[in-house]
Design goal:
Two copies of one chain form a homodimer.
Chain A lengths: L3 H6 L32 E2 L14 H11 L1 H4 L7 H15 L9 E4 L1 H13 L5 E6 L3 H9 L3 E6 L13 H9 L4 E5 L11 H14 L2 E5 L16 H5 L4 E5 L13 E4 L2 H14 L5 H4 L12 H22 L4 E2 L7 E5 L7 H12 L1 E2 L1 E2 L10 E5 L4 H18 L2
Parallel strand pairs in A: 1-11, 3-4, 3-5, 5-6, 6-7
Antiparallel strand pairs in A: 2-8, 7-8, 9-10, 10-13, 12-13
Helix pairs in contact in A: 5-6, 5-10, 7-8, 12-14, 13-14
Chain lengths: ~400, ~400
């Protein structure tokens, strides 16, 4: 088992999204070429909540929560009962399977909080955990933190959009070898892929056959494009026995500043997660929980318009990337992540990310955060000002040309 | 090492403060005596933020944070730099030792979040940790969660108020036996004791001699009564090398609904804690962090008035308890906890707590949460409406008389 020092070594966040201000300035002087490209700075490491503002009613509902005083400030560790009950109904509608707000749902500080509690409640020292490559970097770090053993399963996300591209044979091998837990994001972070109905059915069937608990991170499932194909909720197929679903209003709804998330699944696991939350952070901030009253019941047409605007940005960025030679990118079917594979360059991928920051005022998240096999890729969260994002991707492409081998 | 199921068994929260609504109704019919005592319900398990409202300016500053948009919603994992820098100055002033906001401070979701990260960053599997009995229940649970080994050290808090009553010989034995970490609350939760300058000096000296990291939970150190004697900040005595201090605005300032806390100590440990926070909850909610702009710089006289009002409640409750035969209680020197030891009763201590709820509409936290040696005690958070608290303690005393052996 890893010593505490080794454990924290694996948790390095130097290249994590949003933490770029704390990076040591690398010496790029030997590799840098040409002039700076002038343009409005864009931070693609996360969405811009100034460009896409928080969903309507959130702030007002927060204020109501503060005014409610003590009964909103202190809630059960799993979250205020009345909010859970109402939210459970809407989550059941959205995911297509019944849900008990009393027993099967916990409110957390962000979806990150939900993911942490779920992994903590299911992964013990030495437990094998199936992890998709590429996938959200915290999945891997959390398993390492709890001394689990990572069993990678490849996602061939560039092969086409009729399926996400999960290697189901590899998944079965890993399950056969004794994996206890499978964690994956759907839509996929960073690729924007949606798992096909067949893939979800296969996951459900394999999990049930081998007794594996599946953690489905569905954070981005609402931002579903008109050409994205069908979205299948695992919990609706698999029954609720061995599936924990994670969602939250931080992305599509731009409510990240409130740190709210939700995990729902078997009562026994939710119970464990509540016990742990009691010593991790007590609860999602009481006043903030109030904001969930507006979630999944926004004004008519609001979500559709948000999807339409994101789809338009997506299409512009895809066209810009694809006009260049040798940049490979899958069309995101949901969410606001786009994962672009670059051609061979004269500089290392991490140096290129730093060059983008210095010469183009553009921040992206390096592919190395998501898989050891995607070093030559970069993730962009395109929930940004449309024109600024388009201009920034033009600058990226110009620098790809400049540094191309 | 504990299995994951065993681990979560130790985390039971059935009797934890504020979670009483989820307790199964125990069958008290066989032991209950006499009639219900009518009175305004009081929940002593936590402070009443309707009776003592959030510190001035908090809400307005939150609203400013929301208006600031993206730059307040997304911050570094350790918290927004400008807020950390300003807060570090005020924390340095308050604790009497310099502090770098850039390197030595992390903002967390509540002080519970700070405590979790600190224990996680210092306690590995098998590590011995010195824990005071009685002390805040999460200390023990956190050590168990990380598979540490608890080494209890007794606090003879009823012996007088010239010192907290820590058994320093026992502390040294535990350090000698290889303890790596010592965690304690000062002022003490649940007893309200302040550690004397001599005790703090001894802790600093022993920690330095045996190379022990000390976690000082000073959550309640601002609510310091005029007759409470001197308060000594360990970090001012011990240097910053092996001390992590934890504070937050949830109690004295009634800002619990915003879930904000702070840990400050050696840069290397704060760095670890930030890495972990990145996978636990990302950050304290961005908008909420804004509220810390008002902390430790409230309007002149505000803190003094809050102390005066709490001291008056304290004195009334102490007088009521002490007028009864056989109830032992130390005069709290700081904070709003009061820990009362009851005489022998005809019912078990946990049943008596349930009887208080049923027959007196009063919620208290049972002594079993704080130490295996304080089953016959109960903790009251007296940050309540003054008259309601006094009447509730009169009902408690009446029921003590009714159930006395």
């Amino acid at each position: 088992m890893a010593s505490i020092a080794e454990k924290f070594e694996t948790l390095k966040t130097d290249n994590a999204p949003g933490q770029e201000t704390r990076q040591q300035a690398a010496n790029l002087d030997d590799v840098i070429k040409g002039e700076t490209l002038v343009g409005r700075p864009v931070d693609f490491s996360h969405g811009d909540v100034d460009a896409f503002e928080p969903a309507p009613g959130a702030f007002e509902t927060f204020c109501d929560g503060v005014r409610a005083g003590a009964r909103q400030a202190y809630t059960e560790y799993r979250g205020k009962e009345e909010i859970r009950e109402a939210l459970a109904e809407r989550l059941a509608d959205f995911t297509g399977a019944p849900l008990s707000g009393a027993r099967e749902l916990i409110l957390t500080p962000g979806t990150q909080g939900a993911l942490f509690l779920t992994i903590a409640a299911t992964v013990g020292a030495g437990d094998k955990v199936a992890i998709v490559q590429p996938d959200y970097f915290a999945n891997r770090k959390l398993v390492q933190f709890f001394d689990g053993e990572i069993c990678p399963v490849q996602l061939d996300y560039l092969a086409g959009t009729d399926r996400a591209g999960l290697d189901l044979d590899e998944l079965e091998s890993v399950f056969k070898a004794g994996a206890k837990v499978f964690v994956f994001s759907n839509p996929s972070n960073p690729t924007g892929a949606i798992y096909s109905p067949d893939e979800i059915r296969a996951i459900a069937e394999l999990a049930s056959r081998y007794g594996v608990t599946v953690i489905a991170d569905q954070l981005y499932s609402r931002l579903h494009y008109s050409d994205g194909g069908p979205y299948t909720h695992l919990r609706a197929l698999a029954g609720s026995e061995n599936v924990v679903t994670i969602m939250g209003p931080s992305k599509t709804e731009s409510l990240s500043g409130y740190r709210l998330g939700a995990a729902f699944g078997p009562a026994k696991l939710i119970e464990r997660m509540e016990r742990l939350q009691a010593i991790v952070s007590l609860r999602a901030a009481g006043y903030n929980q109030s904001v969930l009253r507006t979630w999944l019941c926004e004004p008519e047409g609001w979500l559709e318009e948000r999807i339409r605007l994101h789809q338009a940005i997506r299409d512009d960025l895809l066209a810009t990337f694809r006009a260049a030679d040798g940049i490979a990118v899958r069309t995101p079917q949901a969410g606001s992540y786009l994962f672009a594979r670059l051609p061979a360059l004269d500089v290392s991928p991490l140096d290129f990310v730093r060059i983008l920051r210095r010469q183009a005022d553009v921040i992206v998240t390096p592919g190395s955060e998501f898989s050891p096999h995607t070093l030559d890729s970069m993730r962009l969260n395109f929930s940004q000002d449309h024109a600024a994002a388009k201009a920034a991707v033009e600058r990226i492409v110009e620098l790809v040309e400049r540094y191309r081998t």
